[in-house]
Amino acid sequence: MLQLVDVGKKSIADYTSLASRGVMEEIRKLAEPLAGKRVLHLSATAFGGGVAEINYALVPLMKDVGLDVEWRIIMGDDEFFGVTKAIHNALQGDLHGLTTTQEDIFRRYNAMNAAEFEDDYDFVIVHDPQPAAMIDHFPETPASWIWRCHIDLSAPNHAVLDFLAASLERYDASIFHMPEYVPQHVALRQAFIWPPAIDPLTPKNMALSAEDASYVVDQFGIHLERPLLTQISRFDPWKDPLGVIDAYKLVKQTHPDVQLALVGSMAHDDPEGWDYYNRTVAHAAGDPDIFILSNLNNIGSVEVNAFQVH
Known about the structure:
Layout: E1 3-4, H1 21-31, E2 38-43, H2 50-64, E3 68-73, H3 78-91, H4 100-115, E4 123-127, E5 144-148, H5 158-168, E6 173-176, E7 191-193, H6 210-218, E8 228-232, H7 241-254, E9 259-263, H8 272-284, E10 290-293, H9 301-309
Parallel strand pairs: 2-3, 2-4, 4-5, 5-6, 6-7, 8-9, 9-10
Antiparallel strand pairs: 1-3
Helix pairs in contact: 3-4, 6-9
């Protein structure tokens, strides 16, 4: 069996102060025909990144309105996640394609995970490219399979997208963040636009006073009376932390007191993240006004909130 994620409990009633009664009633009415339906969310990691954040909020709320929902994590190691990060980069426009060996690794791990998958759900929601080819192993599946894409496909490497296309075309529906991200030359059965959302009740997004934020930020050596530039992101080429450092250096020429905090997290499905973390540290070149922080420095949701507030 694939690893089950414990998401805890949430109640939609907790959001009544943030959303209107009409919205709450509409959600419950829409959920009624789906009561008891078995739904699986399938992703590469339960830690780090937006997919995990979304699912920790979405899955328990789906349960609260009457669906029978699980979230499971596929198996993989650096060999596999190195390939899937290359796919991720290529789908966002990186010109490097996949070698035959990389394609074989991707297929092999998807087959391995499919062998551990029990196909007894009504709906299977597959997040991002990592598990996308698992559907190939269930041609007679009774479930409705949905691919939810969380990345920018507006200018993809078409060779890599074509490699995935045969799998993506099997899905009953696909979900994208923006209309521009829907690939035009892939014969998707249905494409829907569903923007990502934050959970306003999580520690990262809850109301935090300026005083409390300053107290937290101060613990990391930030000078509270000096200006601070902050980027919250993974250490990833598409977030360009090296470019952020270069921008900080330009600002430093006219505002010599400025500081920079690069605040991120490391995810186990992103081996490239360690390379970019190390490159970021090297690019900072020991500048005492650059703070490179992550979960390795005890950065969590409250700390991210504090940096954003400050």
